[in-house]
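User: Structure tokens for this complex, please. No commentary.
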Amino acid sequence: MAALTPAGPMAPVTPPAIAAGPGGRAGRPRRIRVWRGVVLLVAAVYFLVPLIASFTFTVKDASKGFTLDAYGQILSAEGFGKSLLLSLGLGVATIVVVLLLTLPAMLAVRLSVPKLKPVLEILCTLPLVVPPITFVAGITTILQWGPDHLADTPFFQTIIAAQNPDFPVVLVLAYVILALPFVYRALDAGLGALDARTLVEAARNLGASWPHLLFRVIVPNLRSALASASFLTLALVLGEFTIASLLHYQTFPVWIYTISGSQAQVSVAVSVFSLLITWLLLLVLSSAGARQRSGS
Amino acid sequence: MNGAKVELRGLRRNFSGTTALDGLDLTIEPGELIALLGPSGCGKTTALRCVAGFEQPDEGAVLIDGADITRVPANRRDAGMVFQSYSLFPNLSIRDNVAFGLRVRKVAAAKRHARAQELLELIGLPQIGERYPHQLSGGQQQRVALARALALEPRVLLLDEPLSALDAKVRVTLREEIRRLQLSLGITTIFVTHDQEEALSMADRVAVLRAGRLEQVADPATLYDRPTTAFVAEFVGTMNRIPGKLSGRTVTVLGQDLPVEGDVPATSDVEVLVRPETVIVTPDPSSEAMILVSSFRGSTSRLRVQLGDLEMLADVPGHDTVRLAPGTRVRVELVERPVLVSASSDVAAAVPVSEHDVV
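Assistant:
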């Protein structure tokens, strides 16, 4: 059935000219189309079923049948705004730090020591293979060990400030590391499509200083790569649960989990809601990337 | 004169084991267009990059008007550069590309736009200011790159094979245009190329480099007619090597006695260097020599002639192609003029030297 369903609506689309063409030629596109439909259907089932199930769960009510109350309650729910703002703030800070860290490093490696590129690549990919739980264990140890040994030094204040529950810098640092692989991939693809060396030399030759050429030449030409790096980082921060939860910070995912105990419907509604927000961001960013392509 | 005098003094540069520059000395006079010519890996691009400041020589100095600029960073040098690959900033319009250097120097917008327009008119593309690089052809992009390099009125212009990515026709018109602009602006220009035709047709002087050293520097006619070394003779143009017997300052070759020019080797067994266009080929059924291959090139034809176990190249006018078809028996003579000789190489009986065809 799966093979037939997509072929049904597709069939009328096939122009008669192709259908009348030589057998081999007409047969192949049709078979490709059928398979395309199958893949699409399987993917759609995989992604849509949980979504629809979640949505149905949030709008079903034993007495009234259909209700959007759960969505109405999101805004009034205790801690929603605060945790969402905290997560967004952490996301923005992480993006700024990770980009300031990787872009100059990658550019420098590409321009002057291409031999180090594999080393940088491995370094940046490493976080993928280290489970978050190990991070937490390491960070917790440091945070406990730190204050005892640094009590008399200025670092004491720093380590305390980094754990401020209103804006835990320590989470930003952890997220920067988690985001490295994604940011590296995105920027590497962007830089690969750019003849960075020639552009840099042309700008230097015209008198541009390093900061000038970085912000006026490299960044504008890497816009879509920077956008996708930022988006991936933001999505990562908005969805990260393990580290934040184990270090006892009320980020957005942690908050969803917390209220799911008392208000199951609201927590699922929030999940659907945050998914929509993420999609919206993705749309905005990809359309920004498309605009750049047509503009440049 | 707007051009500066550029001096390269004993430039030496090593890249992890390979020597790119090996004590290069060269003085470029104000307002001169000099072509750096040589096979790939001869160090010509490295030399140019030393002048631009993208490369630091291990030893030696670069002087502009007598001032040592070897350690001056690239963005504070007074030299405009055009690159081999397309180097326009993709995110900026053509006008902003040309005005980039002025913007860096914080020139007011109105003034720099006027200057950009002026330069676009100079390169013959006044109407494209609002367009973006990807909308231009390769030739147009290189012209804009030239305008951009000239925007700051540099006293030295550096051209790093700017025409090699273009197709043949555009290449010829653009090189004439570059030459015209260079002459009218009087700007000292260093032009790196591996294309001998380009070097010979554009430059005031051509410097032939080999393995990081200067082999010969001379005006194009001298370089072609009076190469001082066998390397130059073979690299610039095509040369036949024909065995001959030396006696005093004359050499006997193909039954002719010709005066010798330049250095005379110690041995009497020598090879005479002969350009294909100085080989005269006439049909003669009684002769031993025979035409093997004839390749028609429009105005001329290049013939490959076999004479005993010797093969040589000869250029004849295009209209002679019919009567000089492959298989024709011919008589081979040389034009009566002084020739260069070099000691016999061990290479089996003088084979025509590799052809450096115009790419």
